[in-house]
Write a structure and sequence with these properties.
Keywords: Glycosyltransferase, Transferase. The chain is of the alpha/beta class. The protein contains six helices and nine strands, in the order βαβββαββαββαβαα. The chain has a five-stranded mixed beta barrel with strand order 5-8-7-6-9, surrounded by four helices.
């Protein structure tokens, strides 16, 4: 496929080699305006804002993924395959399933369990375990420890369901899963298939353990530690 694609209006070369990918287009705008120098809007299609600028002199892009695995599946596939992007770092939110993972703590997805059928397209003769890029994960942990931020590394649950009628989400906690979100597994699968790198960094926005939750405005405009970690390793 040539560029622009049906979903991204940019041309080859408009994206940096590393793209930060929040779910929310307004969080992408916030990162571009707050942290990037000389940020330029390179994709306005469907309101999925994408920007490229520099951070400490290094080119960095940020573009929203939308919600869920089908959406991040489209955008990450096109970035990896058509825009010569090497690294995608998800900067999203997650619901804690671990008693020691509190509101505004940071979680790194070393792996991503899922209840999605996204993997079926690859026609594998077994069960696939999506994992992060060790190189990106190692750098992120080193940066985070230097910042003194509370964090945990472990397994995520990437769920197709935000509203779970079976109320079975917490069952994953007994297997050591840290938190639930909706994108990491598809991102990791796309990266693996493309031979590229991916990492999901999530700020805990709510807790399934305590019932605490942040507001939509807080999720959009705060969570700076996660953003800084991603920018430092970009």
């Amino acid at each position: 496929m040539s560029t622009p694609t049906p979903h991204i209006a940019a041309k080859v070369g408009d994206f940096a080699k590393t793209v930060l990918m929040p779910g929310d287009p307004l969080r992408a705008k916030f990162v571009a305006e707050t942290y990037l120098e000389n940020a330029v809007l390179i994709n306005p299609v469907r309101g999925i804002n994408g920007y490229t600028g520099t951070y400490k002199g290094k080119p960095v892009s940020v573009m929203a993924s939308g919600m869920g695995m089908p959406s991040i599946g489209i955008y990450s596939y096109e970035l990896f395959h058509f825009y010569e992007v090497d690294n995608i770092i998800r900067i999203g939110t997650a619901g804690s399933m671990h008693p020691d993972l509190k509101i505004r703590d940071v979680a790194f997805g070393m792996g991503a369990c899922t209840n999605s059928s996204y993997v079926n397209q690859f026609e594998l003769p077994g069960t696939y375990a999506p994992v992060a890029s060790y190189e990106l994960l190692k750098k992120a942990v080193e940066v985070t420890e230097g910042m003194g931020v509370n964090y945990k590394v472990g397994n995520f649950l990437s769920s197709d369901n935000f509203y779970d009628d079976s109320q079975g989400t917490m069952k994953w906690a007994k297997m050591g899963v840290l938190c639930v979100e909706m994108e990491a597994a598809a991102l990791y699968m796309n990266a693996a298939r493309a031979g590229k790198n991916a990492l999901a960094i999530c700020t805990i926005s709510d807790s399934l353990v305590t019932g605490e939750a942040t507001t939509a405005e807080e999720r959009q405009n705060s969570f700076h530690n996660m953003m800084k970690i991603a920018l430092e390793i970009a």
